[in-house]
Amino acid sequence: MSTDTGIDPAVAETSASKGVETMPFAKALNAGMRAAMENDPRVLLMGEDIGRLGGVFRVTEHLQRDFGEQRVLDTPLAESGIVGTAIGLAMAGFRPVCEIQFDGFVFPAFDQITTQLAKITNRHEGAISMPVVIRIPYGGHIGAVEHHQESPEAYFTHTPGLRVVSPSTPNDAHWMIQEAIGSNDPVIFMEPKSRYWAKGEVDLSASAVQLHSSRIVRRGSDVTLVGHGAMVATLLQAAALAEAEGTSCEVVDLRSLSPVDYGPLLDSVRSTGRMIYAQEAPGFTSLGSEVAATVMERAFYALEAPVLRVSGYDAPFPPAKLEGTYLPDPDRILEAVDRALAY
């Protein structure tokens, strides 16, 4: 099993009869890309240090060894060049997957992404597809500094023509990366880097998850907590603490940031009457702002309190020793729960 999937036997506990393996988030991504490359010779990986090194987070470990330098390309330190080359490869019939080493370094490629990649299909009235995936490790909790701990997802959700997703579990990482690679539209694949080492079960025999579907990960009746990426784990911690105090919280993992699957979210809000959106990004004109406005438009008469947001502060990401103050934690979420219940 380990030979076929590339999963280190030291970190994989196999339940072969169920087709389920327990593995870290990073290994689940690695196995997902491996499967995509095995199934389609047009799939290419490209990025800084992704080949011999296997990426700074080892997400692409051993893939160059097994698929060769023609399909796993170490590129120069030139993000605009990486994405520009991927656009040309997509036009030539390939399905490139780009890795941006850290979130804050995506901006040299921002022009290529927003003015070319996002618009080419529409510009040519659908005659040219852009099956390009851009993987971006993002978010805090690893004790780094600005450019290495940022949450730029709202820049991309604001851009028509891009699909934006963010898995929170190894199982979703494994399946969503394969669906992203299979998409004929460009996909910004936001990877919460603090989850790379988090283990979870991956059902290798299951059908793929729906790339643009939200899901309820914990049932509750008093307040709906919503988030994406690493924030989902924080919401679950807050829900467990709230339960000990007698408050029942439902937790929704958004998974797809553009488009947003509002169905399960609106059903939950109509049941609980209260909603809190938590995110690591600054709150001003953020994804949480958009989701809060939409929920208040579409479920206004079910709400018992305004939709509240818990965000990173509207300031540049701070030095590492202050990240615990900057990033939302269970206490800040529980304070919002108390405010929602007080209405």
UniProtKB/TrEMBL annotation:
Enzyme Commission code(s) on record: 1.2.4.1
Keyword Repressor in annotation: no
Alphabetized UniProt keyword annotations: Oxidoreductase, Pyruvate, Thiamine pyrophosphate
Gene3D superfamilies per UniProt: 3.40.50.920, 3.40.50.970
Pfam families: Transket_pyr, Transketolase_C
GO MF annotation terms: magnesium ion binding; pyruvate dehydrogenase (acetyl-transferring) activity
CC cofactor: thiamine diphosphate
Entry annotated with the keyword Mitochondrion: no
Residue span(s) of domain Transketolase-like pyrimidine-binding: 23-198
Protein name: Pyruvate dehydrogenase E1 component beta subunit
